[in-house]
Structure formats: C-alpha cells, structure tokens
Design goal:
Layout (H helix, E strand, L loop, with lengths): L2 E3 L4 E6 L5 E7 L11 E4 L10 H8 L8 E5 L17 H14 L5 E6 L1 H12 L4 E7 L7 H11 L8 H12 L8 H11 E4 L2 E4 L3 H6 L13 H5 L6 E6 L7 H10 L4 E5 L13 H10 L3
Parallel strand pairs: 4-5, 4-6, 6-7, 7-10, 10-11
Antiparallel strand pairs: 1-2, 2-3, 3-5, 8-9
Amino acid sequence: MANAVTNGFTEKFFESTDGLRLYARNYQPTGESTDRLPVVCLPGLTRNARDFHELALILSRDAGFPRRVMAVDYRGRGLSDRDDNKANYNLAVECGDVIAACDAFGIDHAIFIGTSRGGLILHLLAAIKPELLTGGILNDIGPVIEPAGLMAIRDYLNRDRKPRSWSEAIDILKENHGAAFSSLDPTDWESMAHAIYREQNGVPLADYDPAIAQQLKTIDFNNPLPDIWPQFERLRSTPLLVIRGENSNLLSRETTEEMTKRHPGMVQITAKGQGHAPLLHLGDIPEAIRIFIGRLS
C-alpha cells in the first residue's frame, strides 16, 4: 500500500481480491482524532474519487464535527488499474472492490454516499454485507432507473468527440448537461471538467476504460429495465437520505415517492437547478448531508 500526501487527502493504493491495483483518497479529519463514523464515497458509472473532493473537504474540515472521508476509484476508473477482463466491469465485482477497500483501511462501519452507480452498489452492500452500513445517502439513484436517462448516458458517453483543450472539454459538458444544470457557474463547470478528465500530453482525456461505456450499447431498451426493489427493502432499517436532481431524467419523482412509502424514515431533498447527478458540494446539499450524518454518530 502506497501513500502520498496531497491537497487535503492521502492517496492510497490497495489490491483487489483478484490482484488489481486500486486507488482511494483518504481525507483525515482536522484537529484531534475523533470516533465519529467515517464516510465512504462511491462514484458513478465512469466517474472517480475526484467527484467528491469539495464535499470531502467540507466534511473532513467541519469546524464542529470533522470526520474521515474515503473516496474510491473502481477498477477501470481514475488511478485504478484497467481490467483486462472487461466482463468484470459489473456491480457485483465493483461491490467486492468497495468491501476490499474498507478491509484495507480498517473501516468496519460507515456512512456511504453513492452517486448513481455508486448507489446501486450501496443496494448490493445492504444485501451482501449489511454490517458495513450505518447510514446511506443515495445521490439521484433508486431501485428504478428511467430508460430515457440511461439512454442519454449511453449516447453522450459513446459520442466520438474528444476535447483538444480544457475549454473545449467544458464546452462539451455544457452541450451534454447545460439544460439540466442551470445552477452551475463557470467555476462549477471547470471543476466538473477536471473531475471527469485527466490531462495526458497536454490534452484532456476521459478518465475511464472506454469498454465501460461500450457496455451500455448492449442494453436492449425494447425490454423493461430490471428494478431492484428487493435490495432496497434491505435498506429499510438503515437511515437513508435521498438526493434527487430537480431536472433528473434517471430518478423520477414517482420512484422517490414510492421509496418514501417503503422507507417511512427516509429523508428526501431536491437539488435545485441540477440534473443527473447533482454536484454534492453546491447549494444547501452539504448542510443537509452534514445534518443527516450528524445524527448517526
């Protein structure tokens, strides 16, 4: 396991059960060490730990209740190894990688934040290793995925347009997401670009194995997408916060209403002026997360 201290966090590498070198960021709380529950952040389909940087700094540096935050790069994303066996880019294997990360860093209980695919992994964790979950935050994801939203993700991930500069990377993001993310300012778009892309030979490059996006082409949208209500039922005894983007095309209002019926203690908030998936460091979202997790430890 290698360490490197950088901007507010420690970089750590660990091995998956099948020998891949995987990456995580570890944000230690400021001030004296505390016994508060750590927060583990799980990114979306092609995203990585950088998505959570601003929120992790907010939570780890909280003046009253700082706590440890860990953010994971799944295999094939960010600084984690690409997998030669592309079939391993699936929820079950990635859930195993999350469990391996928790084992490597001595996390027995945590509050998990799952954005999009990360929230689906959180559902699996509730079924496979429920003792890890003390609380959960689902960021614009639930047991039912709207086909239109998934088709939109498939289409923009598989467009053959590669940015030649950072300004062009931002333009591409605005073309893909501008209508749904009306609340973002220029700094927010720049932050999003640097979370999604990494620089290689002076050019921004999407920071994931292209095979992950290719998998979406195999989905037959003529058939209904499977739901995971049985796995959601496993979360009924777990404190839960659900964040839905006001303009989300992946998580519908109807699904969040049904989730509330099935989990009466669930807290639900809307990310104003955001689509799929909301940036968690903007607006009143950090305060809502801070209040929610503050009740759990």
